[in-house]
């Protein structure tokens, strides 16, 4: 096999590996940011939380006077940036948006007792 093709294959493998590691690191960074944002609100009044973070997308009663409030935050991931660049260059006509759905659980007295989140991607 030609030495040039071996180097090209090694280069492509290295670029692919770095891209995967970069995306994984970026996702972990976003997750840590979300946790850092919501962890201080545990055992705090929900009314104070609403003053800083208004507009829940959905409020669902879950029984015994408890509620689950859903907040949706649009994030810009590396994959989303790459797809946007490819769409600009005319390489693709599809795309996707990344969102965090943050679930804030509030008990009957109005105190936040749990915060959970889920990362979602919508493709178009």
Description:
- It is built from three helices and four strands, in the order H-H-E-E-H-E-E.
- It is α+β, with helices and mostly antiparallel strands and 124 residues long.
- A hairpin with a 5-residue loop joins strand 3 (96-106) and strand 4.
- The radius of gyration is 21 Å and the shape is elongated.
- The mean pLDDT is 77.
Strand order of the largest sheet: 1-2-3-4
- Global geometry: elongated
- The tally of beta strands, per DSSP, is 4
Distance between the termini: 42 Å
**Biggest sheet overview:** 4 strands, antiparallel
Strand proportion = 25-35%
Rg over CA atoms: 21 Å
N to C succession of SSEs: HHEEHEE
Sequence stretches where pLDDT stays below 50 over 5 or more residues: none
- What integer is the average pLDDT? 77
What structural class do the secondary elements suggest? Answer: alpha+beta
* Helix coverage percent: 40-55%
Treating each run of at least 4 consecutive H or I residues as one helix, how many helices?
3
């Amino acid at each position: 096999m030609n030495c040039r093709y071996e180097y090209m294959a090694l280069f492509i493998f290295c670029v692919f590996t770095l891209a995967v590691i970069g995306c994984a690191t970026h996702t972990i960074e976003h997750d840590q940011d979300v946790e850092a944002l919501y962890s201080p609100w545990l055992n705090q009044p929900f009314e104070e939380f609403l003053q800083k973070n208004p507009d829940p997308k959905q409020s669902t009663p879950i029984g015994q006077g408890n509620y689950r409030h859903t907040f949706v935050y649009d994030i810009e991931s590396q994959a989303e940036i790459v797809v946007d660049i490819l769409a600009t260059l005319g390489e693709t006509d599809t795309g996707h948006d990344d969102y965090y759905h943050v679930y804030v659980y509030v008990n009957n007295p109005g105190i936040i007792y749990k915060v959970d989140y889920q990362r979602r991607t919508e493709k178009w």
